[in-house]
Design a protein that fits this description.
This protein has 269 residues and is of the alpha/beta class. The protein contains eleven helices and eleven strands. The protein folds into two domains: 143 residues, Rossmann fold (3-Layer(aba) Sandwich), CATH 3.40.50; 122 residues, Orthogonal Bundle (N-(1-d-carboxylethyl)-l-norvaline Dehydrogenase, domain 2). The strands form three sheets. It has a five-stranded mixed β-sheet with strand order 1-3-2-9-8. Strand 4, helix 2 and strand 5 form a beta-alpha-beta unit. Helix 6 crosses helix 9. It is globular, with a radius of gyration of 18 Å.
Length: 269
Amino acid sequence: MGLSVALTDTCDVVLVGPAGSGRGTWNIRAGGFMEAEAAVSHTECGGRPEGDFALVALKAYDVSSAADAVSRCCDRIVCFTNGMGLEKEFGAGLWARVEPAVLSLGFLVDDRREVTVSPGEVIVSEGGEAARLFRDIRLPVREVDNIETYRWAKWLVNSAINPLGALTGLRNNELRDAELSGVVDGMVSELKAIIPDDLRPDATDIAGSMLDMLLSESDNRCSMLQDLQAGKRTEIDYLTGLAADSPEKAPLAATVTALVRARERRSSS
């Protein structure tokens, strides 16, 4: 919802929601880091809107069910979905048409079609299609020549702090005051070993800068907490769970992942 509001200044936007979410015009208000209001066309996933771009910001586990519909909407696909392993969810053929991008902003959505935006950037590939699409929007945009490094950096950040925010109910900038900095550092130390060797040094440095900003300035509550509160599945398997498969190498990550999965089972029941 936040991105749809940001894009209305430069292009026509159709927001696509799940079946039963309704069709028509939604008046959406954004506050916090981006103060704006816009009327956005809304349709359901069976409506097959056509356009120049499809922006995918789904939960990682929902990508596979939407991939076919996305592929028929348009040729150019920009994906903001968190987590790694998305190639499998899209399928090899469609993934070749996907341009990954990264959001370091946070979006907290409530039931009144309002979204609170926390500080950050839209990070896109230099000279890519997404850079052209987002160039004049009202959010900060950074063009980089190594989007995979930033994807891994965002994965590292999300994997380290999102489960802690989900388990404690704390905002990002409350984790340090709760004396959880040592846990965050321990998670980062274990998780960075998952990053490919050639990307690890830069991705770890970028993640460090992101973490400093989030832990000091961002009052966002992570989407993983929102999922648990709503009794929904989380994206833990695409984040911290990648390291938890080797508990002898990542005991802290394995423990935190197990706690989130336990909360998932409890919330869904």
